[in-house]
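User: Can you predict the 3D structure for this chain?
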Amino acid sequence: MISPTGLPTALASLDRTLVMGILNVTPDSFSDGGRWAHADAAVDHAIRLHADGADLVDVGGESTRPGAVRISADEELSRVGPVVIELSRRGIPVSIDTMRADVAAECVAAGACLVNDVSGGMADPEMLPWLATTTVPYVAMHWRGPSAVMDDLAVYDDVVADVTDELGARLATLAAAGVDPGRVIVDPGLGFAKRAEHNWALLRSMDVLAQLGRPLLIGASRKRFLGELLAEPDGTVRPMDRREAAGDAVATLAAFAGAWGVRVHEVAAIKDAAMVARVWRGRS
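Assistant: Here is the predicted structure, written as structure tokens:
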């Protein structure tokens, strides 16, 4: 299992799949919008995620659900800044989920140890130049366009080949901008400009994605394609609060397949699954 450079020692030394707990400090995220929108509630939830076994808490202040409209950088930073500061003060490892270089820079200065960018550096022309000045690891997700239009962009000749090629191109662009390739993690972007059949094809082809030579982050938790899989006979999509077991199954299988990390809403079961996967794969 490849690990990125630049992580804190405690995370870099893990010999199993890393468990990233999701913390949406937003009023409108698809899965839990509004529940942790206030800083105190967000910090309390992050403390619980960490206590349950999250190796890293991924703090995001801007919804990327399909159709979401972007907020201002000031609004995003007002949501995530106090949370990142407080969690870092408490010694809880934090990543910042943002597409903006200025938000990433402020949060890294406040203690965040990883930047998770769903646009792979495409949404903000300042992201790559800033990344070249820092040493933190960076998640480059496969992205074809903003949330407001991404459903219209789910057109592929061969989704596995296309996503692999497009991620490879992003890796080349990052390297050309001066970003150390050893710091980069790739994410196939399940649900972003992808229909259910695209997501399943990518999950079945993690071995192909691994040929990019970079650590893989997989995030399927509570996503619509799981609700579609579990739909009622009349076609009613299973609601988000009843998709947890399916998401756990995907995260467990991803860990067994060698994912560097899995991004989930509830972490306790996945931490156990990652430990089982480690032994199953031949590590004592």
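The chain has a mean pLDDT of 94. The chain is about 40% helix and 10% strand.
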